[in-house]
Amino acid sequence: MSQYKLHQRLGYRVSRLSRILQGRLEEILAEHGLTRLMWCVMIGVGEEDVRTPSDLADYVGVTRPTMSRLLRVLEKKGYLQRQPGSGPDGRAVEIELTGEGMRIVRTTRGPVNAMNEHFTGKLAPEQFSVLMEALDLLAAGEREDLSDF
To answer: Residue 84's beta-bridge partner residues?
Structure first.
């Protein structure tokens, strides 16, 4: 039987890099009382114009119940608010950042960008492009729900 060679396995290497990236991001966000998923929601609302809970769940890659919990926490922190939407049945809800939520996004954006540039800067532009394409190919057709992370 041949050796398993754990450190040569795709899963090991991707998981290791993921933990490194997540750890760095979490250090930045922890100073502001945010988790990675909370920050993704705030970026979705504040910079990508994703406004409904259902669209946010799809955008972040979590289940609807997980998104509901995230929205409640962010609302309690005063970072976002729910507004009546323009749907025909009056039940639609739209999410918007509060002034404090916008301030937190502006404050965290620079350090998050710098962390991202630290890692992407290790690759030549064509290497980065190939990596992103390969990651997309590996994830194609797979379950995307991140609620257990």
So the answer is: 93
Report the distance separating Cα 32 and Cα 42, nearest Å.
Answer: 13
Measured from the Cβ of residue 123, the count of other Cβ atoms closer than 10 Å reads: 13
**Distance in angstroms (rounded) separating the CA atoms of residues 98 and 66:** 21
Q: What is the β-pairing status of strands 93-97 and 80-84?
A: antiparallel
Domain architecture of the chain: domains with CATH = 9-139 (1.10.10.10)
Going by the DSSP 8-state scheme, the letter that residue 46 receives in this structure is H
Spatial separation of the C-alpha atoms in residues 25 and 21, rounded to whole Å? 6
Nearest to 101 by CA among 74, 72, 82, 83: 74
What's the pTM? 0.84
Q: Per residue in 101-116, pLDDT tens? A: 999 999 999 999 999 9
Q: What is the largest CA-CA distance in the chain?
A: 64
